[in-house]
Hints:
The chain is an alpha/beta fold.
Amino acid sequence: MHQRTCLAIVLAAGEGTRMRSSRPKVLHAIAGRTLLAHVLAAVKGAGTTATAVVVGPHGDAVAAEAERIFPAAEIVVQAERRGTAHAVLAARAALAKGADDVLVIFGDTPLIGAETLKRLRGALAGGASVAVLGFRPENPTGYGRLITIGHRLVAIREDKDASEAERKIALCNGGLMALSGEVALDILDRIEDHNAKHEFYLTDAVAIADGMALEAVALETGEDEVSGINTKAQLAEAEDAMQWRLRDAAMDAGVTMVAPETVYLCADTTFGRDVTIEPNVVFGPGVTIEDDAVIHAFSHLEGAHVGKGASVGPFARLRPGSRLGAKSRIGNFVEVKAAEIGEGAKANHLSYIGDGSVGAGANIGAGTIFCNYDGREKHRTDVGKGAFIGSNSALVAPVKVGDDAYVGSGSVITDDVPAGALALGRGRQVVIPDWGKRAGNKVVKKAAPKPTAKKAAKKKPKTRR
Ligand code: UD1
Ligand code: MG
């Protein structure tokens, strides 16, 4: 069977002035990914074969993000903002190349799912020339209304152009549209700007198709999927919706979450089987957790790999480049960055392990610091297999501690320690006997001051009932 080709046109020209930000709207992020990246992920999931991203005149940063995600994406500039159909036609060259399906998607609707885009494509495959995504918002003000006669979708009326009767229609336009590639350019070129906003409305494609005796259909979806983001408050709402999707997906895949509402995930967080996540854990981008690992409460992970059966936290921080081996343990108030922790190795308390490695089975004592920075450059610290680093030691990089070597507590290690050796890098303890008895060293005990009447009254022991 012929695989239908699909061109996705993503409209990302909006500046988003209501975001009150110097960043373009579609470059704001939810679940660790830009709005544009979420939309492009859905586009990819819908099996599109070509993608054009329409940016505004100052759209360099948006273009760069689009190209980062989809190097093959075609970037087109809509120099003047003259309506959604005008924006789509900025991608005329891409349209002219021909595709079976054309999908038009707004860059600020990050909750749109690939399945819904596939449904729109399915309507085209079923013979429709235009397929529109409708929804029933609580408050329809501002949205285009879908005008139907029986099952036929005959027009979309923009709020500003609608009659009183049309404004009463509950089914609204979500904004996304699928057009048959065969007729898309023909339809788009017929759209005019005779309306309240003097814009070229993409929505007019429906009435034009109807006039050409082509079939237009409306599909329905939930409001959450099509709600666009214009303000920081809407950004936060979308974040919440996305977080619940990710949490539900993780739990469906077998992750145990004690209090899912307190766990923050990234769109790319991946879990193995039988992972447990305690409350108040935050996942930044690029985290993979293998089977049977436990992430204890109040931990923060980013760009990290946690091996099978490893234990992290409570109160641990894994920064980018942390790679924890199977059954390793990173305990409370331990920070790891760009470091490999070997199988079964432990750093249970109050340590910084940055730029280096810890061999399998090694023990990093409480308060150990990898001193990786000399004020100009970062250097590595490598601790061998089975090594034992005594508490409160500073390992001054670049430095190597060999396999099965020991470092005495409180050491400052500046030279390599050979395998199996003990290194002590600390002042020797001095014990001076009978110090207290020596003349002048007597500890004179001051008499305790007499309590004043007021204080004495306060000091009365409370009797408990
Ligand atoms: C649009 C729909 C409306 C629908 C609503 C859903 C049209 C004419 N109207 O209205 O039926 O109910 O979305 O949210 O399509 N854009 C450009 N260039 C332009 C104009 C817009 O790139 O010249 C982009 C915007 O950045 C935005 C999208 O197109 O991402 C939609 O534009 P917007 O002005 O928000 O349209 P609405 O009035 O919300
Ligand atoms: Mg809008």
